[in-house]
Amino acid sequence: MSQFFQSIGRRVLDSLAGIGYALAMLMSAIIGKPQPRKSWPLFVKQMYVVGVLSMLIVIVSGLFIGMVLGLQGYTILVDYGAEQSLGPMVALSLLRELGPVVTGLLFAGRAGSALTAEIGLMKATEQLSSLEMMAVDPLRRVIAPRFWAGLISMPLLALMFSAVGIYGGYLVGSGWLGVDEGAFWSVMQSAVDWQDDLLNGIIKSIVFAFVVTWIALYKGYRSVPTSAGISAATTSTVVTASLAILGLDFILTAIMFGG
Amino acid sequence: MESRKTQLWVGVFVVVGILALFFIALRAASGTMTTSGDSYTLYAKFDNIGSLKVRSPVKVGGVVVGRVTDISLSGDYYEPRVEMSISKEYDQFSETSTLSVLTSGLLGEQYLGLEPGFIDDSVDTLEDGDMITDTKSALVLENLIGQFLFSQGND
Fold it and tell me: Best mutation site among A77, A152, A179, A180 for testing chain B: the one with the most B CBs within 10 Å?
């Protein structure tokens, strides 16, 4: 019996220690005297790795998801003679939900897992300890540029996703299925509010970017420095980040659009 | 140089992201006219335009011939004035044409239906900047119900 309580207690303490450790890691990585000359090239390098290399998968999935939305929405809306509402349907679902969420999930799989694996391997090969030996703070040198790159590039990716998705919906809806082009855009314009929909979508994507990057960096930094440990940490990054995105998305939607 | 290429790509990445923001903000919040080809402008005054919007189509017998470009209130009595741009392809509408606000389907969007009038030696065609005088306003459901109830009460 006492073993049962002991195991619960151990888990709670472990997870609390994990949260505290993650917070401490983030704080000491971000807070400090900015050194633009030293950290700017590192940041640009990470923007390339995290952002530019994720562009292709995000744009291609955005195009196809927009086209599928156009196709599915049309077959339902045409029954009610309301196919002009295809524009707002595609635009609102992309800007409010699919843009931030799907980009977040893709970002966790494409960039988050890579961040975890990279930092985990740095730890396993004792590069992080070597940095410390040379009086270079690994948090400032390794974690901080990756964090900022993730935080900035994911909202940009989500915007690209939504824009390409809307265009894909337009291609299918207007170009193929024959929804009136003017009605498609004009009804969309009257339905989409830049503050309610666009700005809230961007806020969502910033929150997801923060969470995904933070989880990925923490999992890498705390990984067990063996090959099995790194693989477990990478898996755990994708799973935890995806669940965090979906859970947070519900909470954010309830706050933003819930009433 | 490696870092040169990296910087270039990051620059492209950021610019594409900002362009996406502009695309969404301009295409989803407000937009400009994109009718292809030459067009000419006509005006019309209504009593009530219902839920007609800028960029709504102007149709003749169901065929789109132009788009609404501007909606404003004009004159001393604040009458809704609709500005529309019609394709140059169709420039032989007579002055006696009528324009009415119609609805596509039961739940659909409102559009302008242009009914070409008769052509006679004494009747001119509509030119750029002309005003269509014979217009029918949108049917407002509440007014219709009100009229119906009023006429019932008289019996």
Answer: A180
